[in-house]
């Protein structure tokens, strides 16, 4: 946090413009391009609603693949009280490090989540912010070996370097990096992402086409 930063947390959601064929690509064989995009909109809506209901948090939606005017991501951000930001170039780690560092210029803590988890809740997000009272970092493990949430009290670009993203090694490699750079951390309960066709057996109710998307 810089000298100009003020107390309080910033929540960052990482997302993609929900274009058929470009989101939830591992689910396209099971759902088709349009079906996968529709499911992604529902998951993004869950994250946005959880964030909007988290007390005291500033809210930012960082999107990849958006048109110049922000597209659907910008509309959803405005509808839920988020500011909209285009994701920069680079791999996932570089983009997350940049978004967290940007938030920590004006906040004393920042929490970043994705848009693939059906189980985000205001209580879960609030617990992440509270954990940063006593720790440098907080991690929300994912059942597949990645994570659904990461939070920091200060920028830590080294935490996101040399990670094998989108593999089951992410969680272990991140813990190793936390130890290597000397950050204290705590972990929240493990949640599940909805990423692969086999996940649909447990989350099939999200295929209900009558659900509200926003």
TrEMBL record:
GO terms for molecular function: transferase activity. It comes from the Bacteria. Gene3D superfamilies: Spore Coat Polysaccharide Biosynthesis Protein SpsA, Chain A. It holds the Pfam family DUF2064. Keywords: Transferase. InterPro entries: Nucleotide-diphossugar_trans, Trfase_1_rSAM/seldom-assoc. NCBIfam families: glyco_like_cofC (TIGR04282). PANTHER family: GLYCOSYLTRANSFERASE, SLL1095 PROTEIN. This is TIGR04282 family arsenosugar biosynthesis glycosyltransferase. It comes from Allochromatium humboldtianum.
